[in-house]
Amino acid sequence: xxxxxxxxxxxxxxxxxxxxxxxxxxxxxxxxxxxxxxxxxxxxxxxxxxxxxxxxxxxxxxxxxxxxxxxxxxxxxxxxxxxxxxxxxxxxxxxxxxxxxxxxxxxxxxxxxxxxxxxxxxxxxxxxxxxxxxxxxxxxxxxxxxxxxxxxxxxxxxxxxxxxxxxxxxxxxxxxxxxxxxxxxxxxxxxxxxxxxxxxxxxxxxxxxxxxxxxxxxxxxxxxxxxxxxxxxxxxxxxxxxxxxxxxxxxxxxxxxxxxxxxxxxxxxxxxxxxxxxxxxxxxxxxxxxxxxxxxxxxxxxxxxxxxxxxxxxxxxxxxxxxxxxxxxxxxxxxxxxxxxxxxxxxxxxxxxxxxxxxxxxxxxxxxxxxxxxxxxxxxxxxxxxxxxxxxxxxxxxxxxxxxxxxxxxxxxxxxxxxxxxxxxxxxxxxxxxxxxxxxxxxxxxxxxxxxxxxxxxxxxxxxxxxxxxxxxxxxxxxxxxxxxxxxxxxxxxxxxxxxxxxxxxxxxxxxxxxxxxxxxxxxxxxxxxxxxxxx
Length: 536
Hints:
single chain; mainly alpha; 63% helix
């Protein structure tokens, strides 16, 4: 008899067991959604955790740029403080008047190549005094950022981006959102391996606290995954400090010392006790047309990447998909954020923080209040420089270990949109596969070419023109999102079956602010401002 061993044949599955998982436009397993704040003590701790996570980008960008600009530890500390202060202000504005999502608006790596081009501009090469050189370069970056901010302000507040976003379907959003997370793989494990002895314990402990302990423990399990970042970072940071004090890195090379030691950043000694960043602190900004155009291209790339991250944030905040008018409003406020970056002199533009979007998923807390509290921490620690500098001295491999998890969560938010699409359609398979593959392949070519030759594939006498082409095509999310949208719009037939395959029948009710009643709850402006600034 076939299948011997007793027990007979298994009973046939019930009809409901054969059905696929139900489609959900809101995640149901989020503990606190966008409008429901946790208790105050928990909210404050979660807000501090968001502050810790956004510190990575805030410290790593100035740490790489300031030495090239001719600045020392003092300038680095001031730049970190300014970046932190502006991030706090921008996050508050975004959560109050922008998309109203729990999105942290911080520094972005997208602007770094253009900023380096400004640093290498010929007009600064004759300046001998490093302090003077630093200030002149910073003024040049400020001028470029101020002009570049107009792009997002105009595109956002005029409603132009609303009209573009209406072409976005769940199908074309998948590559855009997925590669907003997965496309940042170079900041994960490659940075972690620069100091394997602290990076590896960090990622292992983070997985144990966030995934395995809640799986084993039943009572109070939420404490472990909700505060996994604080638990794991504190343990590994103490361990890294013991290695530093114990002399483990005494005879190692300078690169290992910078990556592994907890006292090498030089920020704590250089940071003032109390200092309030103020507008034009480096002097009056200087303007160059070419650099402004190049920075505008970087700003446009950041706009596309932020669109993907905003969609991921809305998913993990258990809100409904973003109505295009709300997305456009958020982009406008992000433009205001870049303007603030230029006015205060952060040396870097603003965009939505991918790592903080991933943290929403890890903690399962998508509350707006938590992120507003984290903005308070950013402003507080940017003014009390010495205290902020202590946290800013966390070694980069610890931050990179966190990125491995957070960027993965952002990418999986993109993959979750596949539930709205018909994956049995060959048209869908082609658009998905081709856009994701080219989204990884084209930037790989541009980045590899730049690493080998020291300049990008487009290499003319005008550095600003080179950046306008090289920077967009070096961004995975930009290439994949642009390709997916282009193919989706040009290859679709007007019949109902194709619309259903693309998932548009699910998103139709979110294409306008008024067609879904939940939009009012999640996205309406505070203080009754919707009367004066109605959303469409």
